[in-house]
Design the sequence.
């Protein structure tokens, strides 16, 4: 990777679906999920772009889209304030450690500040040591929280 590439961050557009799809597929592979199709990524991107409290940003340079993040600006009853939740941050493997993730998170922090959010929440699997180290380098601390997920059909939930 050419470390002299100038990265810039902007709001995503529907036309970015293909570029984001490649990144999301890399992320799925990293965390062991099934990769989404480009059609699925496009449909979710369209939904998020129409949602006033959701934001999708891309980082790009001469190589094209090299990073992306999606996040929600949420009113939080539990804390009585606003929280920014970041369910996805991904940087192309050949552009990591070049400031792309840091640039994206800087913009997330700016939006959080503009919305008077008291907290930014994000998720990294315990096995994703690289992501956890990256977030710690930005000043995030790991919370003592147990994460539970419901995976399956709502119509046919798992038996006890």
Sequence:
């Amino acid at each position: 990777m050419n470390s002299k590439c100038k990265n810039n961050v902007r709001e995503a557009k529907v036309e970015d679906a293909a570029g984001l799809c490649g990144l999301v597929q890399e992320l799925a592979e990293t965390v062991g999920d099934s990769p989404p199709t480009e059609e699925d990524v496009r449909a979710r991107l369209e939904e998020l772009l129409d949602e006033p409290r959701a934001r999708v940003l891309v980082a790009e340079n001469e190589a094209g889209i090299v990073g992306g993040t999606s996040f929600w600006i949420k009113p939080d009853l539990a804390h009585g304030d606003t929280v920014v939740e970041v369910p996805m941050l991904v940087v192309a493997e050949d552009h990591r450690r070049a400031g792309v993730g840091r640039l994206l998170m800087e913009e997330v922090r700016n939006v959080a500040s503009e919305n008077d959010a008291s907290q930014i929440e994000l998720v990294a699997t315990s096995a994703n040591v690289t992501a956890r180290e990256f977030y710690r380098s930005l000043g995030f601390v790991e919370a003592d929280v147990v994460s539970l997920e419901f995976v399956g059909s709502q119509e046919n939930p798992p038996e006890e």
